[in-house]
Amino acid sequence: MTIVFKISDNLKDDMIKFYEDRKCEKTPPYAIFQVKDFDCVTTLYESGKVMFQGIGADIEASYWIEEERIKNGRLIDLNGKEKTKEEKIFYNISTIGSDEVGTGDFFGPIIVTATFVDKKDIPFLTDLGVRDSKKLTDIKIKRIAPQIMQKIPYATYILTNEEYNKNWNPELNMNKIKAILHNKVLSEIKAKNYPSNKIVVDQFVYPAKYYAYLKDTPNKVTGITFMTKAEDKVLSVAAASIISRYIFLKEMAKLNEEFNLDIPKGAGPLVDEIGIKIVKEYGFNKLKEIAKLNFKNVEKIKSGLK
Ligand code: MG
Q1: Against a cut of 0.85, is the pTM above it?
Q2: Is the domain 2-82 a CATH 3.40.30.10 member?
Q3: Contact in structure between 134 and 296 (CB atoms under 8 Å)
Q4: Which ranges of the chain have pLDDT less than 50?
Q5: Which of 31, 33, 6, 10 is nearest to 21 (CA)?
Q6: Less CB within 10 Å around the terminal CB: N or C of the chain?
Q7: What is 90-252's CATH topology?
């Protein structure tokens, strides 16, 4: 593991002092010092860049990342990436945010969740390690989601496969479904009048298109900030993403139990294989209850039956 970021000038001397006793006699070119611990090599360069390398890099870097946060208000993550001014603003205010899962998965429902994260709950979430849920393992999701759901207000909607297949038509593309469901959970949370400063949606379509999809929907939530990769930047979106994924995992576990199979996520070849197995045993109609029938997998499953 390698973590690199630029240390602020006011921490440079602290860092030099901190490592003074342990520094190697020889330093690499353009380096001020280098320290070789058994689990991490730390190098400070003249440019101000500091590099942590080794299995202990995250622990070693965390100390300085925390110092940067306390002394300079900088938010640096363990990839060495720093949040921009706009991202920092959204990170430090009360927000409503929403995110969904299941739209790319042939099997299983679509889950959309909105949360309200009050400013005062930000440390609670950061201590739990809430980051982009895509980077969290299922085990971690299962551990932290119930704690989040206990403390953070949320609204969630499970679009079952039956409901999805009944309502699906070519004009109702996936983005329109998403827009309607995001609006549904957002309006539910917004109706509770929490003191949020901003509403953020993880952007999946241009804002104008989003609102166009809601043309016939009552209770349109407006004034949304659309942001790409919002789950990295806004805690309410990150929390919504984690809750959605947690509920999705539970729904998939139910399916696994029902069919005594390990039902795969996504829409790849393994999905076709399992689909064929299920249709052979339970008939094609069973898919209506557990899968999204507009996916191309259906054709592959049909041809696999021959
Ligand atoms: Mg998303």
Answers
A1: no
A2: no
A3: no
A4: none
A5: 33
A6: C
A7: Nucleotidyltransferase; domain 5 (3.30.420)
CA-based max dimension of the chain: 73
* Distance from residue 261's CA to the centre of ligand 1 (Å): 27
Distance from residue 237's CA to the centre of ligand 1 (Å): 8
Instruction: Give per-residue pLDDT as tens, 162-187.
Output: 999 998 888 888 999 999 999 999 99
Distance between Cα 239 and ligand 1 center (Å):
12
Q: DSSP alpha helices (H): ranges in 156-283?
A: 161-167, 174-190, 207-213, 230-233, 235-259, 269-282
Domain with CATH 3.30.420.10 in the chain: 90-252
- Residue 14 CA to ligand 1 center (angstroms) comes to 40
- The encoded tokens of residue 75 equal 């938010």
Cα–Cα dist 293/73, whole Å: 49
Q: Determine the distance separating the centroid of ligand 1 and the alpha carbon of 100, expressed in angstroms.
A: 6
E strand or H helix that includes residue 298: helix 297-305
Distance (angstroms) between ligand 1 centre and the Cα of 99 equals 5
